[in-house]
Amino acid sequence: MKKIFIIFATVILILAACTPVRPQQRPMVTPQASSIFKKGSVEQIKIIADQAPLRTGHSTNYPIIRQLPKNNVYRVLRDREGWYVVETDDGQVGAVEAKQAKPYIEPPSMADQQQNIAQLTPNEEEMLRLLNGERVKRGLNPLKLDMEITKVARLKSQDMIDNNYFSHNSPTYGSPFDMMKQFGIKYIYAGENLAGNPSVANAHESLMNSQGHRENILNPNFTHIGIGIREGSRYGKICTQMFVGR
């Protein structure tokens, strides 16, 4: 009887050793998305009228100092009630009506664009392609990739993983606009989309199916973008899209 018991126990041990151990299943987490938008300050303007009067005050009742020629760029001292207070190269200060000019930031070259795209991860490049495809289909200009913004977006995605949160407001960096300012990102308009999803394609689809996120993606005021995608969150991938208009 004792011998039979030993054989029976041995068989049980062998069966237990051969039984495959199922990996612990990760709990199902609902994919997340969030968006935010802000208009920033103007630092430079470019004259779009043939001649833009530079006046002594911010009203057409003030005398004209001189005419500013088309396509010239000037530093903005203040932005006030439909007028820009600017300084010319020779130090004159005056006011230009906002409809005579547009905000201006020096654009990157085409060579810079190609070099920037080469620095993206495959996931980031896929998201840029999908996003710009939506804009082009609707007759909008594709967004230009900015690697400085991309570096900030990557930091934001990693920060959400490291600190286990999903929000525009970071415990480390503050709001996305605080973060852009901290890292020297200049903008006239700015926005941020966040997505947590197992795949880039599904993240993009969820963003396009949400009005606020779709409006950021298709906003004609935006000209540049940074994309940061990091793995390892409870959602799978954390995607940060940072938009700026220049």
UniProtKB/TrEMBL annotation:
Residues 1-23 form the signal peptide. Keywords: Signal. Pfam families: CAP, SH3_3. The keyword Transcription regulation does not apply. Residues 52-94 form the SH3b domain. It comes from the Bacteria. Residues 128-243 form the SCP domain. InterPro entries: CAP_dom, CAP_domain_YkwD-like, CAP_sf, SH3-like_bac-type. SUPFAM superfamilies: PR-1-like (SSF55797). PANTHER family: SCP DOMAIN-CONTAINING PROTEIN. NCBIfam families: spore_YkwD. This is SCP domain-containing protein. It comes from Thermotalea metallivorans.
